[in-house]
Design goal:
13 strands; D-Maltodextrin-Binding Protein, domain 2; 291 residues; 23% strand; alpha/beta; 2 domains; ten-stranded mixed sheet
């Protein structure tokens, strides 16, 4: 598995895009979580270097992986590792993962649930809700109200992190029939506008005004998705943020990657609520920075 990190990548000379792409705009697709810093970097590179860049989030992380492998885009965005199954399905693509930051998946609830006293849940309680055995918030210390669960589309990085924590393997997750939501904005809006609602969401999108991130009960304590807990590994549903290439990056894709792992790009990662590569190496810095 190729994971390229800041510093090591530059020193190794890896930031050099798979050859063979015809001239045209740099096309990027994938994760709605990775999208904010990438989209803003694209705006800056358009203005400063005159680059033509198209950024889309069709299909989330899985869409980014498949469209990259099929030659439809030059860069993918993913909030999960490229799986062995993906590598087997697309053997012609030498997937390279360029690590640009870190995020966490939060379980978010609507204001009425939060104000009704639900502030944290255990893995067992979450599994009960996901499997339909727990259907009312009163059964987990909340108001007497039906749980309205909005499930992230299977295949999205957010969903995979959630079910991997619950079941150890996404393939072991049971089939469920909850309403599905796609990107982060849709998930946040659905939960914010629905009484008794809950969903999985990038923790940076949990604003504490319309939707609220629950803590996770572990070993007798409650652990929230704070910067320090993500950086130290204490929060169990953290995940890396990647841009992906087939083979070594070159040309305009290299320009984008150089920017994202550089000082200005890392400032954008931080601006959008994610941990930078430097903070991951130094959890104390993450704690001091807050979240």
């Amino acid at each position: 598995m190729h994971v390229i990190r800041l510093g090591a990548a530059v020193a190794a000379g890896w930031l050099a895009v798979a050859p063979g792409f015809a001239a045209g705009p740099l096309k990027i697709n994938g994760s709605t979580t990775v999208n904010p810093p990438v989209a803003e970097a694209a705006e800056l590179l358009r203005a400063e270097k005159g680059l033509k860049i198209q950024v889309d989030t069709q299909g989330g992380s899985s869409g980014g992986i498949s469209m990259l492998a099929e030659g439809m885009v030059q860069l993918g965005m993913s909030s999960k590792h490229v799986s062995a199954a993906d590598r087997s399905k697309f053997p012609a693509c030498d997937f390279r993962e360029i690590h640009i930051g870190e995020d966490a998946v939060a379980m978010i609830v609507s204001r009425d649930v939060w104000e009704g006293g639900v502030r944290a849940l255990s893995r067992e309680q979450l599994a009960g809700i996901y499997e339909g055995r727990i259907r009312n918030w009163k059964d987990v210390g909340g108001p007497d109200r039906r749980i309205a669960f909005f499930n992230k589309e299977p295949g999205r990085g957010t969903w995979e992190v959630f079910v991997h924590w619950l079941y150890g393997d996404a393939k072991k997750a049971p089939s469920v029939s909850f309403p599905e939501v796609g990107g982060n904005e849709e998930a946040r809006n659905k939960v914010a506008s629905t009484r008794g609602a809950m969903s999985q969401l990038s923790s940076s999108w949990a604003d504490g005004k319309r939707v609220f991130a629950l803590g996770l009960k572990r070993d007798g304590r409650v652990i929230g998705p704070s910067s320090e807990n993500i950086a130290s590994g204490a929060y169990p549903m953290s995940r890396p943020l990647f841009v992906l290439t087939c083979g070594e990056p070159q040309g305009e894709a290299k320009t984008m990657i150089d920017f994202l792992v550089g000082e200005r790009g890392q400032a954008l990662v931080k601006k959008h609520g994610y941990l930078t590569l430097a903070e991951l190496k130094n959890p104390e810095a993450a704690r001091d920075a807050g979240r």
